[in-house]
Amino acid sequence: MGLSFSELAVGEQARVLSYHGLADSYRKKLMSMGLIPGTCFSITRVAPLGDPVEINLRGFRLSLRRAEAQGLQVEKL
Fold first, then answer.
1. What is the pLDDT of residue 4?
2. Residue 68 and residue 56: Cα distance in Å, rounded?
3. First to last CA, the chain
4. What does the DSSP assignment read for 20-73?
5. Which is higher by pLDDT, 77 or 68?
6. Higher confidence at residue 53 or residue 70?
7. 71, 21 in Cβ contact below 8 A?
8. Is the peptide bond before 52 cis (omega within 30 degrees of 0)?
9. CB atoms closer than 10 angstroms to residue 66
10. CATH of the domain at 58
11. What pLDDT is stored for residue 1 in this prediction?
């Protein structure tokens, strides 16, 4: 099993492995934004209070709330 999204720091790269404990509707939302298993991304920024987190994937930037993305299982690259 991989790491949780919340365990990543700025500058780290990771690959989406699976979803764990996310509501079906939110899982579909993440998938529609491009976060499907096998997708690589990097953490580019974190807001001053730690939320949201900006990631770079597939040539665009996406901001996610840590609490919502905790169910994203990833592996560091």
1. 84
2. 17
3. 15
4. -S--HHHHHHHHHTT--TT-EEEEEEE-TTS-SEEEEETTEEEEE-HHHHTTEE
5. 77
6. 53
7. yes
8. yes
9. 16
10. 2.30.30.90
11. 58
Which range marks the domain in which residue 34 is found? 3-76
Tell me the per-residue pLDDT of 8-67, one tens digit each, with 9 for 90 and over. 889 999 999 988 888 888 889 888 888 899 999 999 999 998 889 999 998 899 998 887
Residue in this structure with the two tokens 């730690």, named with its chain if needed: 50
The phi, psi pair for 58, rounded to 5°, reads: 50, 35
Structure tokens at 27: 């899982």
Gap between the Cα atoms of 9 and 26, Å rounded: 23
The structure tokens listed for 14 are: 């990771």
Provide the domain count of the chain.
Answer: 1
